[in-house]
Amino acid sequence: MLLKRLLVGLPLKTKQAVHERLPKRLALAVFASDPLSSVAYATEEILLVLVLAGSAVVFWSVPVSLTIILLLTILTISYRQIIYEYPEGGGAYTVAKSNLGQLPGLTAAAALMIDYVLTVAVSVAAGVAALTSAAPALFPHRVALGLLAIVMIVVINLRGVRESGRIFATPTYLFVGTILLMVGVGLVQILTGQSFRAEPRQVPAVESLTLFLLLRAFSSGCTALTGVETISNGVTAFKRPESKNAGMTMAGMAAILGTMFLGISVLAYHFGILPREDETVVSQIARAIFGEGPLYYLVQVTTMLILILAANSAFAGFPRLASILARDSYMPHQMALLGDRLVFSNGVIILGLFSCALIVLFHGNTHALIPLYAVGVFLSFTLSQAGMVRRWMTKRGRHWRKKLVVNGMGAVATGLATLIIATTKFVHGAWIVVVLLPLLILWFRSIHAHYIAVAEQVALERDHRPPLPRRNTVVVPISGVNRAVIRAVDYARGRSADVRAVLVDVDPEETARIQIQWAQWGCGVDLVVLPSPYRSVVGSLLDYIEELLEKDHNGWVTVVIPEILPARWWQNILHNQRALILKAALLFKDRVILTDVPFHLER
Amino acid sequence: MLLKRLLVGLPLKTKQAVHERLPKRLALAVFASDPLSSVAYATEEILLVLVLAGSAVVFWSVPVSLTIILLLTILTISYRQIIYEYPEGGGAYTVAKSNLGQLPGLTAAAALMIDYVLTVAVSVAAGVAALTSAAPALFPHRVALGLLAIVMIVVINLRGVRESGRIFATPTYLFVGTILLMVGVGLVQILTGQSFRAEPRQVPAVESLTLFLLLRAFSSGCTALTGVETISNGVTAFKRPESKNAGMTMAGMAAILGTMFLGISVLAYHFGILPREDETVVSQIARAIFGEGPLYYLVQVTTMLILILAANSAFAGFPRLASILARDSYMPHQMALLGDRLVFSNGVIILGLFSCALIVLFHGNTHALIPLYAVGVFLSFTLSQAGMVRRWMTKRGRHWRKKLVVNGMGAVATGLATLIIATTKFVHGAWIVVVLLPLLILWFRSIHAHYIAVAEQVALERDHRPPLPRRNTVVVPISGVNRAVIRAVDYARGRSADVRAVLVDVDPEETARIQIQWAQWGCGVDLVVLPSPYRSVVGSLLDYIEELLEKDHNGWVTVVIPEILPARWWQNILHNQRALILKAALLFKDRVILTDVPFHLER
After folding, report:
1. pTM for the complete prediction?
2. B533 with A14: Cβ contact below 8 A
């Protein structure tokens, strides 16, 4: 408990909830660290595909990057419309469900959930790669470093969202500043003629440059756009006016992202940089521009920090989505409980566990995780854009034709991207997501069906009258006469007129002894002795209770169990073995009420 | 359940217990398979030590064997006196405790328990070795084979002791017959001059022949005597007159054992046989006498069977000892419960688990287990003989001087043997037993101390009067209005005049809605609304209950929990999370009574 308070802080009152709103400055840090940080690996992933066709064709990385930036522009414009239309938070789930129906909504939700987990895993893995580029000695410990980072982020998030915003602001702005400085200095060097175009080292082609390969490079680069939608999920976390602030934050984020991504792609081409196993592309660029000086290390450190912290976007988004699903009864209801610190703590913890599992399974390797990534994001993009198109067609309203065209373009562009990613990455890992999606949807639906069935079963009918009092027979199973037993009998006789102590006759001598003692201590309660030729104490008791239930088809049977509670946990194996078996057997009988009367031992 | 019945058989009535007595013929098979079977490895273990001083000195195995047979004779005579003196079963624990006191008794008990586990492990490992001598292809699977054998024996023993006797009689007598035949044929071959003394292959000495080495050989050979005492533990399992039958069985067993052991040692010397890694000594003798014919395979098969089944002696002895210890409160009481088939099932299962663990830890290797063996047995021999000496000194009676001399000789002989074994085998593994013994004794004593403390705490005083009726406040925590809640309130209002439904106010709108519903459905029970600024439902409830307890320092507080029981187990994660936390927190409060009112879902 003390440890929890130290790590997580004191509990917050419900009333304090409204103060946990973010100004734009902090919101950008919390929600945009994911898309911004992806520039750290997006160019590298494009080059990794292109280089298969030899080092001669890597100039294609620039047009591929430009195409992705075009997609980013379309996406930003169409998402701003969602932010204004859904000020209460327009995640893909909400938009798809309210406009297209349950199944598309759940598909979007499942896609997003998978993606949040992958965001954490990919970002942390890439962050560790930035660190090991600068400090190769840490390379063998990359899995441990990744797990450590996730645990750190979980703790920070359990403290609550505003404090997270503060913790995340500095590294995010440092990263943006450093990368823009690097791009700026690089461009100045080029324009002033201080640096010349370098040819990359010769790498032979193992595949020919086909359209499929270009599309594969495009798919890899699309990871740059993951997380762009996070702001639209979290509109309610912005200060008022929420939609306007969120929209402006989104536009600003897109501008910064586009600039950095294009800059890195152009510089990588200019310096003839190819991906290497032991050093990231960004690290190579920084080394080329800044040399081995302090600015190089600043780039690596801020890249690592933003990547590790980028995982935080998912920790803002996943618990929110899980709580919305839980409120709609598609996830266990406890996912919707606000914790001490006004955070959906269960969601935070579950996301942490799953992403740790991915880091371990994929040995903390970014390239192995990338093919699983982006399918889900683009599927959810497509569903929410399609949902908006449907919305404008039915709702209409001011400028609806213009808005329809914007979202229509968004839907077509993201739909195409989804198809391209799923096709070109299928054998490399996207199949895992394709298999997982329907399973998750089935799980959501089975939970929903269960909660609906429960609600029907516990619902009170309109003409339901308060029930009439029923008879209650109290049974106290005993195996001796002692304080614990007398305490239970004392409790029981106040509860009903019909109380019986019940003894199973295992040893006739012992039974006779107990009967004599009972006359003195029994508080006047009847002692029933049950025969038990097979020495099954629990079996005989169950038969007796069954008999009582059959005698009165409406009455309760209360079983009062004298339970000795030891002072130390290990002593439990020395007590109550039979009580446990009896309780387990009685749990499934209707009209049987279990009551424990504890007797606490002091030593 | 069906599987259990198929494996174990139908339950037996308590009255059938007296019929589970064994005639001498069957008792020999059940109790003597352990000592008899040890001739299969005792000679080999002697030779394994002697050969360290070179093949020239292996003739010492015969005098060493003769010394062990002398020890056997002393032991048999002195144990017969115990059988007559303790017809109710004179295990080392009983004899040592009643004559020497608690600590020697517990020492004997701990030594025996360790030894029972080792008997199972050593016998099974040696049995598997007999099998793999004849069928070397099975050698890599020896651990799996050992585990399989133990599982088989556990199942047989859970069926009950008389049926075990039947199953074990045939192999035991076949083994005795085959070995005696082998020894007889071998002697005839020698006497009729058909076979000549063979020199063993040359093995260089790595140690010199010292007294210490001879004593080590003697220690190894003493494993032949393990299990000799089992009969004295199980006198009550014999047909009447128990003592006479048990005494005769013991004498018969000793005679057979001595003959076989000496015969094997002499033949091994005559044929110049030395231990080999891949073939047992008995297998080599049988091959020399019978060739590769069917009689050779009969020796191997019966050896394997008797060894695998020898483990059964321990399965008769361990649960009996554990039940006696449990009745004296030195072991958990459930060890004294007779199962369905009149067997102490818990003891059987625990012995099975521990011996499986040994087989796995020691890779099913007999030679690795042997040094741990015999220390415990001889320690318990010594303690019971010393106990008898003390008994004759205090009790006296007819011929007490003669009896004292007999047991005195036994005590001195076994005490010397214990010292020799512990010293010569210490570094080879006996230290494990020396460490384990005091730990076990401590464990026994802490259990005993706990049961005594409990008995004192629950004891009723002579002047104790039945308690006066106390006030009872019933609290029903609710979070909504539904059938499950109404059911719980309906149950509660019949139990006490003072019933309150308690609602924690997490969401004011929801609270207002519930209050309106309560007016209609509440059965007239008061609804208490608790404020909860920090949204901690369980915390607020606990505070409220604490308050009630403080208001009336003598009264009960009954917490009636409406519990929704799902139709399928996995649905439990969707329900009752708070109820579970609440129950765990309330379990440790005095005067708080937990009552579950179940509401069973049907789908």
Report:
1. 0.71
2. yes
